[in-house]
Design goal:
The complex is a heterodimer of chains A (155) and B (217). Chain A is an alpha+beta fold. Chain A is 23% helix and 31% strand. Mean pLDDT of chain A is 85; it is low at 8-12 and 141-150. By secondary structure, chain B is of the alpha+beta class. Chain B has a single domain, classed as 3-Layer(aba) Sandwich (Aminopeptidase), CATH 3.40.630.30. At the A-B interface, helix 2, strand 4, strand 5 and strand 6 of A face helix 1, strand 6, helix 3, strand 7 and helix 4 of B.
């Protein structure tokens, strides 16, 4: 679906539209109306090391994956960290990843960058912290993420 | 890092063997993946005449990275082994879609003075160029979740096809890599005309590009 061809949503659609390019297209207002199911959350020592390199005072860090209760499924994942001073669970800046392409009011693609920004904004009002805190509580020892974090690999 | 691109028939036997040994050491020894192997070499049913390889070499000649490109117009890893990671979408079968697999950019020597992130960018740039020369407009790959963060850090136009699924207890996902201006610009892979094919692809070497430091977040 090209950015030059608006998606014909008409009135706001409750369900994401699967496009040939693999993106699920919808408006931000529709994203806000979806119900998401937690898939898993885990610690990520490599991410923690990276945050420390960037000067972020993180006690721990990890990833969290969720999906919507729609068909097809919206997939949302993000990096998080526990702030050392406040103990709050916070999303990592620019750490949101999805299969979404959000649309403007006229149905044109907002683009990957703007979509990620809006998803990050959505995270600000989505109550994910208790679920993630509970999920990682059962993980006794933070483990390194897959080796070669900076080098791939693919299967 | 120098990158070499070609099919196995283009490579000297020594290079083909070294590549299989490198893949064994990385994917089986270090990562613990359950892959077919024999005599310390890793090859599977998709290492056939139609596969295109990108091999990264240190100045010493030691292999420090690899990638495999498969056309989706024939059976490939995702279509035959992992179609369920596509979130219900049909398996791609198009001359404009190639699969990127067995991608890794890491030296075997622990004291190798190589920037792994820079190497990964160089290797991916070479893979993107090679795929473009064979008509690809996009790549599909099945990867651990960390790859998505890596690609986004690089500035590559990459997006997931659906939720990750557990394979051998580890989350993997299908990732699209768009071979567009964003990706080519991020990787320094020059746009030499989309879809042009290089006749009679022979062994060619691409020198590594120097890159600015990567932002982590």
């Amino acid at each position: 679906m090209s950015t030059n061809h608006p998606t014909c949503l008409g009135r706001s659609s409750r369900f994401p539209i699967m496009s040939p390019d693999g993106y699920l297209r919808m408006r931000f207002v529709d994203l806000c109306g979806l119900t998401f199911v937690h898939l898993f959350s885990s610690y990520d020592e490599t991410l923690l090391d990276a945050l420390h390199t960037e000067g972020v005072c993180a006690a721990t860090a990890g990833i969290s994956e969720w999906k919507s209760e729609t068909d097809p499924e919206v997939s949302l994942g993000w990096d998080w960290f526990v702030d050392s001073s406040s103990g709050r669970l916070l999303p990592v800046r620019k750490g949101v990843r999805s299969n979404l392409m959000l649309l403007d009011a006229k149905g044109y693609d907002l683009g990957p960058g703007a979509t990620a920004c809006l998803c990050a904004a959505w995270l600000g009002v989505f109550e994910w912290q208790p679920t993630v805190a509970g999920a990682v509580r059962s993980v006794e020892v933070p483990v390194k993420s897959a080796s070669f974090e900076n080098t791939g690999p693919t299967l | 890092m120098k990158t070499i691109i070609g099919r196995s028939s283009d490579f000297p036997q020594s290079l083909e063997t070294a590549l299989a040994e490198y893949r064994y050491k990385i994917f089986i020894d270090r990562l613990g993946w359950e892959l077919p192997a024999r005599d310390g070499m890793e090859r599977d049913q998709f290492d056939h005449a139609g596969a295109l390889y990108v091999v990264g070499q240190e100045p010493s000649g030691a292999i420090c990275g690899c990638a495999r490109l498969l056309p989706t117009t024939a059976p490939y890893l995702l279509s035959e082994i992992f179609p369920y990671v596509l979130n219900g979408q049909p398996v791609p079968r198009s001359p404009e879609v190639w699969e990127l697999s067995r991608f890794a950019a890491a030296p075997l020597a622990v004291d190798a003075a190589l920037d792994s992130a820079d190497n990964a960018r160089c290797l991916l740039a070479a893979a993107v160029r090679a795929a473009k020369e064979h008509g690809a407009a996009r790549l599909i790959t099945v990867s651990p979740l960390g790859v998505e963060r890596l690609l986004h850090r690089m500035g590559v136009h990459a997006h997931r096809a659906g939720p990750p699924v557990l394979v051998d207890g580890k989350p993997v996902f299908a990732c699209w890599i768009e071979i567009d201006a964003q990706t080519c610009g991020a990787l320094g892979a020059s746009e030499t005309g989309a879809g042009k094919r290089t006749p009679a692809l022979a062994l060619r070497a691409f020198p590594a590009r120097r890159n600015a430091g990567l932002s982590v977040l």
